[in-house]
Design brief:
Helix content is 27%, strand content 17%. The chain is an alpha+beta fold. It is globular and about 80 Å long. The chain binds calcium ion. Calcium ion binds next to loops.
Length: 589
């Protein structure tokens, strides 16, 4: 029996060279080596046990093995982490951990054809340590859960271990379990391990660079929800501001607000095209807390004598009351905390000037329970991240999120969950020393993830690491007018109020983005700090195409003359002033 399995090992583990890397080839008979459990001592964060289910072999091109497991909590009343790893027949000694989305709750890696498997990557991911029916398309078949916690409702959001798993521990636990499986099945650990994530997964990717820097050689963090604990509260802060009816901005004001943003910011990039490319300067105008720009950026919309023009006033030009302008100032200025949160962060970046100010429910016609004028049957305010307010913060799933008071009775809990959930640590020295490379990309007008918070994190990285060192291992790209999906489009009217042809800005191709990272990590070929994205999203450096410039923060694409469709008509330019002082201060009235 021993002789037979040794023979299989010899036959199956044929090693041969492909390019710079050694490839390891396995067959169906190797999958038993995964085993049925992993000792808790092999996992770098506390767990009670790791259960592995019978491994399966999937024929196809490429063929691959599937190993699934559950990482059991220390808390007997806690929730497991379910995970899955796909092991390709021909392994290039690379692996990729795939980040989650929304509030997570489903395993991020699915069986089926995947181009990364074809490239010889082992792929793995988890459900982050709670089990949710969410994030599935309507009509999709129900997900069969590997293991479940004491309930299948939202009660996990009250469990400390489950919250900390979501915040950071699940990434480490999943990583460590998968490394054991790879070693057992292939006989080796990967030479190159990657983390790739978007949105919540982008935050996870940032978190591993901050907390587990030696585990990863390459990281892609797209539109990360950096200040997770405050982002969940952010939309509620706007609704709290709107508790007095006089502060409420109904959707009838959207056109006027859009027009005002464009009037003051479209031209800052040298072109009246309905695209706010100079996002830093634009933000400085409307952020009333940074000491830069005009004291009253909304003066042009302010009704004289605070006469309430009425919510159904669609006259042109339409005016806003002082209360409504206070709400806009809150939405588009840094939100100062009573006490600093994790990593000494003192404020949350909120949102940035945008031609789409109503996106993701930022402006709503609904009055919610607890707001002045709300009817007896008014709904309780809710959004995608609301469990982070009612569950994590208020520790009462039936609480009204609008009862939150800054610096009030939840202050201690704010501090506690911020440490678990926020990926705001700007010190990436260990990741840099390890030789890691990270590519981050955000959209300049992301209503979901808060572009302001992301830009603040970029700025903190520059301050902490220094531009020169940062340039050696990190790229911080910003898609002009880009949304949470990293694509953008111009508004149909420019800053002069003239109708312009709507121009689309394609999201950078994610597969090419990954190839760019691999080339940096494995061949030390650094990506350009200014990239050209063509109309199909292809990433390049040739300006002689129709498309736009993907610049590194804080730079933006400045129009220099020529056909507006051509990337050659723009250059990467500095916004003038980022930190305050400098020439932009002249805007102050
Ligand atoms: Ca413009």
């Amino acid at each position: 029996m021993i002789a037979t399995s040794s023979l299989i090992l010899l036959i199956s583990l044929r090693c041969f060279s492909q390019g710079a890397h050694t490839e390891i080839v396995i067959s169906a008979s190797d999958i038993e080596k995964a085993g049925t459990s992993i000792p808790a001592s092999e996992i770098g964060e506390p767990v009670s046990s790791v259960v592995l289910y019978p491994a399966r072999w999937v024929e196809g091109s490429p063929a691959y093995a599937v190993v699934e497991g559950s990482i059991m909590p220390v808390d007997p009343q806690g929730w497991p982490i379910n995970f899955r790893v796909l092991l390709p027949e021909r392994w290039s000694k690379r692996s990729m951990q795939q980040g989650g989305g929304g509030m997570n709750g489903t395993i991020t890696v699915n069986e089926g054809p995947n181009p990364m498997l074809g490239k010889g990557f082992a792929l793995y991911g988890s459900d982050a340590g709670h089990q949710s029916a969410g994030m599935r398309f309507p009509g999709a078949p129900p997900v069969k859960l590997l293991a479940t916690g004491p309930t299948q409702g939202n009660e996990w959001a009250l469990n400390e271990e489950a919250i900390r798993n979501l915040g950071y521990m699940q990434m480490k636990k999943t990583h460590d379990a998968v490394m054991v499986i790879l070693k057992r099945v292939y006989g080796a650990e990967p030479e190159f391990n990657y983390y790739v994530g978007h949105s919540h997964g982008g935050r996870e990717a940032l978190t591993v660079a901050q907390r587990y820097p030696r585990d990863y050689e390459g990281i892609i963090s797209n539109v990360p929800i950096v200040n997770f604990s405050t982002l969940m509260l952010g939309p509620a802060l706007i609704r709290i501001q709107e508790i007095p009816e006089e502060n409420w901005i109904p959707t009838s004001k959207v056109k006027a607000i859009t027009r005002e943003f464009l009037r003051q910011t479209d031209h800052l990039d040298g072109l009246q095209d309905g695209i706010i490319s100079n996002y830093v300067a634009a933000r400085q105008i409307f952020n009333v807390h940074d000491g830069i720009g005009p004291r009253d950026p909304w003066a042009g919309l302010r009704a004289s004598g605070n006469a309430d023009p009425g919510n159904n006033d669609n006259s042109d030009p339409e005016k806003l009351s002082d209360g409504q302008i206070k709400t806009l100032e809150l939405s588009y200025s840094s939100y100062k905390f009573t006490n600093p949160l994790a990593n000494g962060v003192t404020s949350f970046g909120m949102w940035t000037p945008t031609p789409e100010p109503a996106g993701f429910g930022m402006i709503t016609n609904t009055r919610y329970k607890g707001q002045e004028g709300a009817g007896a049957t008014a709904p309780i305010y809710s959004n995608m991240g609301i469990l982070g307010v009612t569950g994590f913060l208020m520790q009462d799933l039936s609480a009204n999120p609008l009862d939150y008071v800054e610096g009030g009775k939840y202050e201690k809990r704010r501090q506690e969950i911020s440490v678990w959930l926020d990926s705001t640590d700007p010190d990436l020295s260990e990741f840099y020393k390890h030789g890691g490379k990270i590519i981050m990309t955000i959209g300049a007008i992301d209503n979901i993830a808060s572009s302001g918070a992301q830009m603040d994190y970029y700025q903190s990285l520059i301050k902490k690491m220094g531009r020169k060192k940062l340039g050696k291992f990190a790229r911080l790209y910003v898609v002009p007018n880009g949304n949470h999906g990293l694509s953008g489009r111009s508004h149909s009217q420019n800053g002069n109020g003239e109708t312009v042809e709507v121009k689309t800005l394609a999201a950078p191709n994610s597969s090419q983005n990954m190839d760019m990272l691999i080339d940096w990590v494995e061949n030390n070929r650094a990506p350009s700090k200014t990239l050209v994205i063509d109309k199909k999203g292809n990433i390049g450096t040739n300006c002689q195409v129709e498309g736009y410039l993907l610049c590194s923060y804080p730079n933006y694409q400045k129009y220099t003359g020529g056909p507006t469709e051509s990337a050659a008509s723009y250059k990467s330019a500095s916004p003038g002033s980022v930190k305050g002082g400098g020439k932009f201060r002249s805007l102050k009235k």
